[in-house]
Amino acid sequence: MVRLILDSAAGGYPVLIGSNLHRELRNVVTRLDPTGAAIVTDANVRPWAQRVAKAIKRAGLKTAIHVLPEGERSKSMAELERILTFLERQRIDRGGCVIAVGGGTVGDVAGLAAAMWQRGVRLVAVPTTLLAMVDSSIGGKTGVNGRRSKNAIGAFWQPSAVVSDLAAIETLPTASYRDAFAEVVKYAVAMDRGLFDLLQRNAPRLVDRDASMLERVVFRCVAAKALVVAKDERDRGPRAILNYGHTAGHALEAATGFRVSHGRAVAFGMRVSARIALAMDLCSKRLVEVQDELLDGFGLPDRPPSADPDRVLAAIALDKKARRGKVAWVMPRRIGHAEIGHAVPGALVRRVVTRSLA
Ligand SMILES: NC(=O)c1ccc[n+]([C@@H]2O[C@H](COP(=O)([O-])OP(=O)(O)OC[C@H]3O[C@@H](n4cnc5c(N)ncnc54)[C@H](O)[C@@H]3O)[C@@H](O)[C@H]2O)c1
Ligand SMILES: [Zn+2]
């Protein structure tokens, strides 16, 4: 097991990464000494949440479990309200805590409930997907979707502890597992050369879900994300580096009505960004090649997505990170180092996107 202490404006909190961490979870919760604990999970992860409940009951703390329907649709105002009603019924007071057991969906909506209930109660994150372990459980962004816009309603609310039990990964569907590697490769290319080398050397072991290798990878991803979040908790500046691959990636998702998964879209976005960077003489041809090889090794994607280039280009122009109509690209310079805020000529974006979709 590895343990990090992350900084936040509200004080430091532990992130534990390892296998079969029930005892550690119990100790973490005991140390928070809550007046009550309420677990939120989704239908697919319920058995895992029941194990968490059992571990906590051994510490003499009563808990109940609220189960959301599986899937992104649970990130809604309606489900948020149901969670708040559950917390009310469980008589969670200001000294209580919410324990979110699940992927990014559960983490985002349960995190927002924790931020709102009693104007904020403590949150313990127990991520069960690789994406949640390397990305969504870190950084304090919580939220639900608006009727038309993703993650439009939310709050910054840092957890009091994160317990990433890699045993949960064993039951994760292949598509979800594979998709998370897009974010892993993102951290490696944009921020961490050592992680890139680790991935290159151990891709097959990682594809086989080797727990000890996963422990090292999750640790480095958490450390990378924590580093930028600590500098920019509210996402006003340097945190934008985490957007590497997401400009064209989000556009591909939007242009295909979200038929292309987030991970596959981000992989596409990183391939596009690297090719643009090469054309602007910002990076080497070698970078484009080794990034391609790594993404191929994780099955991201095995063929170009089918999408209308004009739609993707229109969606890029609407990028939400654009300021005063200028899209700010994150460009890789060398493996382990990217730069934020690059302007790219429209004709070049068009050329690269069109080619990448052919
Ligand atoms: N807050 C942030 O900073 C942040 C960052 C990235 C993504 N997100 C959000 O995270 C969400 C995506 O997260 P996700 O990919 O974890 O999706 P998810 O939570 O929807 O989980 C994917 C699927 O796997 C199932 N599942 C979860 N754990 C499992 C396990 N151990 N075994 C078997 N099945 C399991 C879930 O029920 C679901 O069907 C999106 O809503 C996205 O907006 C948030
Ligand atoms: Zn992402």
CATH superfamily of the largest domain, please?
Dehydroquinate synthase-like - alpha domain
* Low-confidence runs: none
Distance between the termini: 45 Å
Radius of gyration: 20 Å
Which ligands does the model contain, each kind named once?
nicotinamide-adenine-dinucleotide, zinc ion
* Percentage of residues in DSSP E strands: 15-25%
How many distinct domains?
Answer: 2
Structural class: alpha/beta
The number of helical elements comes to 13
Determine the fraction of residues in helical runs and give it as a percent range. Answer: 40-55%
Mean pLDDT level: 95
For the secondary structure, the number of strands is 11
Descriptive report:
- With 358 residues, the chain is an alpha/beta fold.
- It has two domains: 2-172, 3-Layer(aba) Sandwich (Rossmann fold), CATH 3.40.50.1970; 179-356, Up-down Bundle (Dehydroquinate synthase-like, alpha domain).
- It contains 13 helices and eleven strands.
- It has helices at residues 22-32, 46-57, 77-89, 104-116, 130-136, 174-191, 193-207, 211-231, 246-255, 262-279, 285-297, 309-317, 346-356, and strands at residues 2-6, 13-18, 37-42, 63-68, 97-102, 122-127, 141-144, 153-156, 161-165, 329-334, 337-342.
- The strands form three sheets. Strands 1-2-9-6-5-3-4 form a seven-stranded mixed β-sheet, sandwiched between helices.
- The longest helix is centred in the middle third of the chain and has 21 residues, at 211-231.
- It is globular, with a radius of gyration of 20 Å.
- The N and C termini lie far apart (45 Å).
